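Quick one:
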Amino acid sequence: MSTFPRRSNLTQTLYRKLFATCGALVLALSATLLPAGHVQAEGKTFSFAMTGLYPPFSYRDGSKLEGFDADIGRALAAQMGMKAEPVAQPWQTLIAALKANRFDAIIGSMAITPKRLEAVNFSDPYYKSGAQVFISANNQNLHSVDDLHGKTIGVLVSSTFEATAKKYTSHIKTYTDDVTALHDLTVPGRLDAVITDELVGSNAIMKANLAVKRLGAPLDLDNIGIAVNKNNPELLKKINEALAAIKANGKYAEISKRYFGRDISK
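Output:
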């Protein structure tokens, strides 16, 4: 016979609750002691940021973030077996917020530059884009960018494309949106050409069904990548593998054609 006194049902219940509480505390403490990158890479949620102010790449539809970048992020999350969580963040604070672990990655049409590579790592490029010249589909006089000298060129106000246009002409007209500028190419006598982002312009042409075409190749090209913290190499590897997979299985092309009418990775 045991020399220990028999515990009452109440005492046994209290012990069980105590052990359960201690176990939960140990698990919680273990989670907080793991490196931030490890938690993000192995978690069930993949959070990624963009501005939400750069259609067709990111924009708001009510309270929901939509656009090419948002859909690519969702496809990557699905491929990695994670739940997608797109979040909006001002452009100028994207990298600082990433480094503060506010989210796992930036999928916000961010160009890969040497300066940014000092702060974060980037995935393989998921598309390339740059300044593109557009002209009327009926224009038979302009055959290359060299023919732009002295012509009237439309650009987005306060954009870097104005400086590009000044290399060819002093006759520059500014616009508050790309669609209006591109539309003016179809009105005889208003504009000879428009310089804007290749993909933004292509989307605007497709959406508005404009009789406009590209003139030559893009004037320059940037590699666009997905930014990830330097202390999170596991997640970067998973993103690159997932990106290659959605390109191979056709999901990337499906998303791209929805916004641009073609696969912009090629």
